Amino acid sequence: MRLVRLRHALSILPVILLHVASTPPLAAQTDAPAIATEFEGRPIAAVSFDPVKQPFAAAEISAMVPLRAGQNYRAADVRAAIERLYATGRYQDIQADATLSAAPASPNSSEAVVLRFITKPNWFIGNVTSEEDFADPPSPGQIVNASRLILGDPFDMAQVTAATTSIRKLFFNNGYFSAQVEPKITYEDVYNQVNVVFAIQAGKRAHYEQPSVSGDNSILTEQQIVKASNWHRWFILPGYHGITQSRTRAGIDKIRLKYENSHRLLATVVLKDVAPDYAGRRGRPELQIAPGAPVNITVQGARISKGKLKQNVPVYEEHTVDADLLTEGSGNLRDYFQAQGFFDVDVSFRQRLSSGGATEITYVVETGARHRFVHLEISGNKYFDQKTVRERLYLEPASFELRHGRYSEAYRHRDEGSISSLYQSNGFRDVKVTSRVVDNYRDRKGDLAVFFTIAEGAQYRVASLTVKGANRIDLAHTLTTLNSQTGQVFSDSGVAADRDTLIRQYGDNGFASAAFEWNSKPGASPHTVDLEFVINEGDQQFVRNVVITGLNTTRQSLVDRQMELKPGSPLSPSAMTETQRKLYDLGIFAQVDMAIQNPDGEEDRRNILYDLEEARRYSITTGVGLEFARIGGSNAIADLSDPGGAPGVSPRVSVDITRLNLFGAGQSLTLSGRLSTLQRKAVLTYFVPRIFGHPKLDASYSILYDDTHDVRTFESKREEASAQVAQHYTRAVTLFYRFTYRRVGVSNLKIDPLLLPQLAESVRVGLSTLSLVQDRRDDPTDAHKGIYNTLDVGLATKVFGSQTSFVRVLGRNATYTRLGSKIVFARETQFGVTSAFDVPPNSDPTDPIPLAERFFGGGGNTLRGFPENQAGPRDILTGFPLGGSALFFNNTELRFPLYGSNINGVLFEDAGNVYSKLSNVSFRVDQHNPEDFDYMSHAAGFGIRYRTPLGPLRLDLAWSLNPPHYNGFSGNYNQLVQCSAANTCQAALQQISHFQFFFSIGQAF
After folding, report:
1. Which of 367, 359, 356 lies closest to 333, judged by CA?
2. DSSP labels for 396-432?
3. E strand spans, 440-552
4. Are residues 737 and 876 in the same domain?
5. For residues 409 and 529, which has the higher predicted lDDT (pLDDT)?
6. Between 203 and 32, where is the model more confident?
7. How far apart are CA 299 and CA 308, in angstroms?
């Protein structure tokens, strides 16, 4: 028997042919040439693989290794097969053993060759997690990032050793000096993945102690350095903070800033180490400080704040002084002063060393006369109108917001380029844009005008488009969407957009290496172009498997339903990204990593990896708020004064506790609490997303307790249970189907309950509601354009277990329209009506709706001529609001810039009221008598909005044009009951104040 072995390894290329004989070594060496000749051309008896289980299916192996029984053996064919297998990236080592069979295949044939491939597969990085018993930081994500183990990459044990060292360093930098990191490695044969879990025993976090400072500390004392670092707790608790990497970094930056404020811009503060004490409970930062020579930067010839100087001179940021940075500072200062109206400003700088070694830098500013940029004119534009061109310009004439306009030479040249780009992207390849500046425009000293002149030239169009190389996918529909179609405008930007479209189409069909080239030549007609697109499709790739790791409590079926990719489908990057987005949208994953396994290998079927990090199961959010206005509610039981509300402050505290991913199904349970002087509220909500497996259907179930005093007339206690299904019909339209069953009790009633007994009784309400929400606003917190519509239709009936029966309809329409580029006209109209039926015998047939189910309105978000919930009908004896069965509100606002980019002004007019019933809705503006409240109230005013990340901070000052008069009662509650029984009560005429104010967060609508 003869044996030939072919071995392929990382360090041995090309394949080495080894010849080993079963005869003694000397004989083998003597016969080697003859034996090699004897194997070449012999028939192959069998081809096998060891181990039998390979990374590829049998059909794929057969395609890569086209060696079959009955074919003649050729060493070159074996070598080529090994090369193809190795190029896939899935093998660490490949050997081919060839032996002669014991007997020839037939009497007349020569001995056949038995060929066996012995393989060692590659392993790839899969799920990387940590087991921890410590408080953040570091977070689980930081631990994984520190490991530098990249999902899908080939695995090497040396990477784990380096990762362990890096993670230990991360913990050391966060104060865990004695952290133990133990990697646990598991191998998954199915997908050749290696999962790594870092078991971490962190111990207790160490705290800072007094830093040791080396170097020159003559500028700042150690006490000043410690105070600047903010590592020491000064006011709350004695001692030092716990060590964290971010706190250490922030402390170094604050120390450097302290030196900067002492004109030491070149100061260096280096953290040499954080040295732990013997017990590992404290760490001493060791600082090396070199304050450097003083650097004094001053401005001569103009005034500028220190903050603006730091923003414009990069020496402060770079902590070094060189000519380039100083020159850049000159340009920045020039632009700053030009934006202030000094259009002729000239800025230069001087640098010198003083006798004390300090660097003195003086920016010399010659501002010249102050100008106003008052006029901007564009001529020569025929293809585009003025508005289209103007909206691309940064230059802006003087206005209420910009007193001197916005102008500089740099801005003017940039706008020339913007206009040119606009025309070039629309086929005007020869466009020329020039500008000129006219000072003392219209003989007004200091007024400046800019004139842009556009020479459009000819517009180029596509005479013909030829697409070559598109053989494997159908581009018929895609070609109809291209910019560069026959007869359309030709431009480089249009071709670039077409390239992106075609490459995206190929990418979605698995052609990851598709390439695009284009050529053009003049067409037969003037100003036309013949285009040619050449596509090199490359190889198509498919999905072998979708591998999901990292699931602990989440159900596999929930994740599978989000997958846009299936085994056998083309490998689409956009589908991979869409799957990642859908997984994030579940709200139960802190991180979703995706990768292609073996990214550098040459294989046409790929494993797609999704490594999921489940979010923490419990989350707590808190919030505080404050409302400052004429408060319409009160919790004073016996107080009958000020039925129209009184100035006050209502602080608010809210806490939400959420349990995510219940039962591993993506469901959540949230307990929300709210406490203020006007409300005590708690609600438990169980949220079920994607019910019935439908991506557009969500369900929620809630239990609520609410104790509210926001209506001055009574205290309302509500116990409620509800079930709701939300249907996301489109991105902008959502339908809500809701059933609510509640018990509402009314207490602390400030009107005589003997006069209206049904108002003082508790009532059970079973209410079925259909709601429609259409939201097309650009920004829900501060809309500038779009619409917002809502419609609620509810039915309460005895069939639902309700003690009262009514139909309720409430609609809202809001629009937001831009007037120019800066002004927004906002309008909102609300209309609602409640109609009772099946009126119970003990109710007033003229007003049967229970008190707690009536409409209440007025206040900062509805009608600013009233305090909160003070609009509408009132008790004719005490003057306290009773609510109504109909409402109409119309609000209009003109929102405009007031000062800078963050402060806006608002002019508003509110009109409407709450009415006793639908038939009494009226648009008249006069009140007939103190018992008449069915008229339209108007209020106008001015507001200020300050932009914040949470929404605009709002102050509204309103003046009511026709506030209502009403009868009030000057005594206390006991006196009210007594005089009511004796029919001797005396009313006192009162009135809602003309002036109202509101301070809160968020636009009125």
Report:
1. 367
2. B---SS-TT-B--HHHHHHHHHHHHHHHHTTT-TT-E
3. 447-455, 461-468, 515-522, 528-536, 542-549
4. yes
5. 529
6. 203
7. 11
At 38 the pLDDT is 61
Are 736 and 773 in contact by the 8 Å Cβ rule? The answer is yes
Q: In which residue are the tokens 């903010």 written?
A: 230
Which residues does 435 contact at the CB level (< 8 Å), separation at least 6? Answer: 412, 415, 416, 450, 451, 452, 453
Of 201, 224, 248, the residue that ends a domain is: 201
Domain termination residue (choose one: 161, 179, 201): 201
The DSSP bridge partners found for residue 595 are 609
Which CATH number does the domain housing residue 377 bear? 3.10.20.310
Q: Do residue 798 and residue 896 come from a single domain?
A: yes
Phi, psi (5° rounding) for residue 658? -120, 135
What distances in angstroms separate CA 162 from CA 158, 181, 593, 595, 597, one per listed residue? 6, 12, 22, 22, 21
Q: What crossing angle do the helices spanning 573-585 and 492-508 adopt, rounded to 10°?
A: 80
Contacts of 229 (CB under 8 A, 6+ apart): 211, 251, 252, 254, 255, 285
Return the residue matching tokens 């190795």. Answer: 86
pLDDT tens, position by position, 238-263: 788 999 999 999 999 999 999 988 88
**Residue 796 forms beta bridges with which residues?**
767, 806
Strand partners, 867: none
Two tokens at 519? 């050529």
Interaxial angle between packed helices 245-261 and 157-173, expressed in degrees from 0 to 180 and rounded to the nearest 10: 50
Q: Which of 376, 373, 379 is nearest to 434 (CA)?
A: 379
**3-class SS of residue 865:** coil
Alpha-carbon torsion, ordered 613, 618, 620, 621, to 10 deg? 50
**Helix H or strand E encompassing 304:** none
pLDDT tens-digit profile of 300-353?
A: 999 999 889 999 999 988 888 889 999 999 999 998 898 888 888 999 999 998
Strand 646-662 vs strand 447-455: parallel, antiparallel, or unpaired?
unpaired
In the chain, the amino acid numbered 136 is D
pLDDT over 80 at 762, yes or no: no
Are the C-beta atoms of residues 21 and 3 closer than 8 Å to each other?
yes
Q: What is the mean pLDDT of the chain?
A: 87
Query: And the tokens for 289?
Result: 């400080």
- Which helix or strand (DSSP H or E) is residue 188 part of? strand 180-188
- The separation between the first and the last C-alpha atoms of the chain, rounded to the nearest angstrom, is 92
Domain range for residue 965? 620-1001
**Residues 625, 591 share a domain:** no
Q: Residues 608, 516: one domain?
A: no
| Beta strands per DSSP E along 760-885 | 763-775, 786-796, 806-819, 823-836
Say yes or no: 340 and 414 in one domain: no
CA quadruple 19, 23, 27, 30: dihedral sign:
negative
**Cβ atoms of residues 248 and 175 within 8 Å:** no
pLDDT value at position 23?
29
CATH number at 718 reads 2.40.160.50
The position carrying tokens 């940075």 is 325
Nearest to 56 by CA among 28, 86, 99: 86
Number of domains in the chain: 8
Q: Are strands 697-708 and 679-688 parallel, antiparallel or unpaired?
A: antiparallel
3-state secondary structure of 128: strand
What is the reported pLDDT for 704? Answer: 95
Neighbouring C-beta atoms of residue 196, cutoff 10 Å:
22
Q: Could you tell me how many helices (H) and strands (E) the chain has, helices first?
A: 17, 42
* The pair of three-digit structure tokens given for residue 57, joined into one six-digit string: 């299916």
Does 138 lie in the same domain as 114? no
* Nearest by Cα to 597 from 1000, 121, 200: 121
Residue written as token pair 């009773």:
882
CB 239 within 8 A of CB 282: no
Whether the CB-CB separation of 125 and 193 falls below 8 Å is answered with yes
- Give the number of other CB atoms < 10 A from CB of residue 131: 12
Instruction: Tell whether 567 and 708 lie within a shared domain.
Output: no
Considering only CA atoms, give the Rg of the chain: 40
The verdict on 268 and 347 lying in the same domain is no
